[in-house]
């Protein structure tokens, strides 16, 4: 999950470049890369499914997506945290063991 908002006009190649250049990750790794806009009501997910890139796009009618605050450019979250975030709920910060 990217911690910095991105321009929601970006599509496949531009988001893949954000993953490579800004997040320092491989967009073809099979991970879900989650981005939000500055206002927080829009989210895009970039995913490589071994055949090609897919983009999932969601808009909340009320409220904003709750992204974790972090000093890194991206944070890894669990499946459950992603589902909570996509529902517009706050996700608990990961705790160190």
Uncertain residue ranges:
none
The shape, in one word, is globular
| Number of E strands | 3
> What count of structural domains?
1
Q: Would you tell me the overall average pLDDT? A: 89
| Tally of separate helices | 2
Strand content: 15-25%
Oligomer classification: single chain
> What is the H/E order?
HEEEH
Rg over CA atoms: 13 Å
Name the helicity range: 10-25%
The structure class reads: alpha+beta
Spatial ordering of strands, largest sheet:
1-2-3
Terminal CA distance = 21 Å
Instruction: Characterize the main sheet.
Output: 3 strands, antiparallel
Description:
The chain is of the alpha+beta class and 97 residues long. It has one domain. The protein is 20% helix and 20% strand. The chain is built from two helices and three strands, in the order αβββα. It has helices at 12-22, 79-86; strands at 32-36, 42-48, 53-59. A three-stranded antiparallel sheet has the order 1-2-3, with helices on one face. Strand 2 and strand 3 form a beta hairpin. The two termini are 21 Å apart.
């Amino acid at each position: 999950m990217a911690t910095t908002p991105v321009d929601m006009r970006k599509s496949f190649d531009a988001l893949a470049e954000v993953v490579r250049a800004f997040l320092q990750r491989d967009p073809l790794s099979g991970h879900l890369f989650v981005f939000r806009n500055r206002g927080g009501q829009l989210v895009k997910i970039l995913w490589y499914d071994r055949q090609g890139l897919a983009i999932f796009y969601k808009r909340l009618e009320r409220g904003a997506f709750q992204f974790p605050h972090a000093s890194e450019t991206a944070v890894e979250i669990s499946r459950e945290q992603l589902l909570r975030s996509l529902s517009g709920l706050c996700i608990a910060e990961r705790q160190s063991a």
